[in-house]
Design brief:
This protein has 18 helices and 17 strands. Helix 4 runs parallel beside helix 5, helix 6 packs parallel to helix 7 and helix 14 packs across helix 16. The protein is 41% helix and 21% strand. The strands form two sheets. Strands 1, 2, 3, 4, 5, 14, 15, 16 and 17 form a nine-stranded mixed β-sheet that branches. An eight-stranded parallel β-sheet has the order 6-7-8-9-10-11-12-13, sandwiched between helices.
């Protein structure tokens, strides 16, 4: 395996001949791919590729699947320092934990948090992550540097709240100028793709919601916001505006194909129709529903209606295989069992919405998400020589049900090997872990975090459980 790693780490062209390639139409044997200048320049039968590229020495990987990297349709890279503080907490943890924590981070801690989260993304097979924006003041550049240093492709949201929810609230005209500057700065970056965000509709004025959505649409980038996740937020919207959050966005004309709505779990049939009619997209975050949500998004119904959606972690757990398993499992538990639906979309649906479907909602359908000529060479080499994949009859289902991140041998973005068997090949990840362990406690202690429950040891001693 060390020989394979050495060959994959080179800077020249690669001709890879894996046992299987996961193409948009499904896994295929007897294929080969050529990676040149960071993109897939040829995907064809091994015979055709070797004939047309006689100068390249094929690298045989008979026990591996070459598949697209996962695309996390919704995450928060600057929340990794507090990720273990939210277990068992009631809804709207952003008010008590995330806003206070992120708002207290200085530039260095934003960098460390984002770098740690980006490393976790790559370890979990995510070659791309859609970040909803940091609430820290003026440190989005540190987040971008961290993601770039690790080699994670990222869609980075610039938060445009004008009524609250961040460390500092500039005037509306300043926010819009900063948003324009954000779009301009990263418009042609090879790994960083700009996006605009409003944390939740209630922390922005109607004028800002409409302006930011329109700006994103005109620029061809994604506008992100969280909607219909918690019952209390839906009720606040009804009281303040007379409409549910998605209904209010539709009323303002702020929905559209540029819009990516995180969660959309408490959603009515009318709101589903609004999403379908406007072409708006959803980040389906199944693990977030399990850990801290009020409901499960009706993803199968969205698929049947033609509503675009991709799978997101919401910063919960960076493992693309376990995310797919949770996505299918929650649809089965929440909807399939009651209707006798034994397929619940099938393995192919969840593979698609974790890769190309997620790239689509992220605004990156022409950039990544598939093994296809002209797209960025963002891919995984998954070891199929494992008990979990033996015997193999239906690889797409098997990846959803039996896949795990420890089966990923190599992670590539832009044609460059970033991780080998879970660890970076060109920087010291363990030094990062030591630095985070040394400084995270101080950062947490400084933040005005409010937890409702004590940590597990205190729970045990107080008699909450035996």
């Amino acid at each position: 395996m060390s020989v394979i790693r050495e060959k994959l780490s080179g800077t020249g062209d690669l001709l890879l001949r894996p046992g299987h390639v996961l193409l948009p139409e499904g896994p295929r044997a007897g294929m080969a791919v050529v990676v040149r200048a960071g993109v897939f320049c040829r995907v064809d039968t091994a015979e055709a590729v070797e004939r047309d590229y006689p100068d390249l020495l094929p690298l045989d990987l008979p026990d591996h699947l070459l598949m697209p990297g996962f695309v996390d349709a919704h995450t928060h890279l600057t929340q990794s320092l507090g990720k273990a503080l939210v277990f068992g907490e009631p809804s709207e943890i952003f008010r008590r934990i995330w806003v206070p924590l992120e708002g207290s981070l200085d530039e260095r801690m934003v960098y460390l948090s984002a770098k740690l989260a980006a490393l976790e993304c790559l370890r979990g097979g995510f070659t791309t992550a859609v970040d909803a924006g940091t609430r820290s003041e003026g440190h989005i550049g540190a987040l971008v540097r961290a993601a770039r240093d690790v080699g994670l492709r990222s869609v980075v949201g610039f938060i445009c709240n004008d009524l609250g929810g961040t460390a500092h609230i500039p005037d509306a005209d300043v926010i819009l100028r900063q948003a324009e500057a954000h779009l301009s700065t990263y418009r042609r970056d090879p790994l960083v793709h700009p996006s605009l965000a409003i944390s939740i509709p209630e922390v922005a004025s109607d004028g800002m919601l409409k302006a930011v959505s329109d700006m994103a649409g005109a620029a061809g980038v994604v506008f992100q916001t969280h909607v219909n996740e918690h019952l209390v937020a839906v009720e606040r919207s009804l009281v303040a505006r007379g409409r549910r959050p998605i209904e209010h966005l539709a009323h303002l004309g702020a929905l559209g194909p540029q819009v990516l709505l995180a969660h959309s779990t408490l959603i009515t049939p009318h709101e589903l129709n609004l999403l379908r009619e406007t072409g708006s997209a959803v980040a389906y975050n199944p693990v977030a529903s399990l850990w801290k949500g009020n409901a499960v998004a009706p993803a199968l119904q969205m698929a049947a209606l033609g509503i675009r959606f991709g799978l997101g972690t919401d910063g919960t757990r960076a493992d693309g295989f376990r995310l797919m398993d949770a996505a299918e499992g929650l649809q089965r538990a929440g909807f399939g069992l009651a209707t006798g639906d034994s397929s619940c979309g099938g393995g192919w649906l969840w593979l698609d919405r974790a890769t190309s479907g997620a790239a689509n909602v992220a605004g990156l359908a022409g950039v990544t998400g598939s093994i296809a000529e002209g797209l960025a060479a963002d891919f995984l080499l998954v070891d199929l020589d494992r008990p979990e994949f033996t015997p193999s009859y239906d690889l797409m289902w098997e990846l959803v049900r039996y896949g795990n991140r420890d089966q990923i041998d190599a992670v590539f973005t832009n044609g460059q090997l970033r991780l080998w068997q879970g660890w970076p090949v060109d920087w010291d990840a363990r030094a990062l872990l030591a630095e985070v362990r040394g400084d995270a406690a101080v950062a947490i202690a400084k933040a005005p975090i409010q937890r409702i429950h004590p940590l597990s040891e205190a729970h045990r001693h107080l008699g909450y459980y035996k």
